[in-house]
Design brief:
By secondary structure, the chain is α+β, with helices and mostly antiparallel strands. It has a single domain, classed as Helicase, Ruva Protein, domain 3, CATH 1.10.8. The protein has one helix and two strands. Strands 1-2 form a two-stranded antiparallel sheet.
Amino acid sequence: MGARPMARLIQEKIKKPLANDLLFGELANGGHVTISVENNELCFTITGKELEIPENS
């Protein structure tokens, strides 16, 4: 597979779904994403954003 087909694959399978989640979905308020492959399918695992509380507040 060459660079252009690989770029199109990444665009369709990773970038577009993540952009959609960032704008309208579970990632709209932040969070962490782990991408894995299970049964030859990409799986996105989204965990909530951990709040960082400064010590001097």
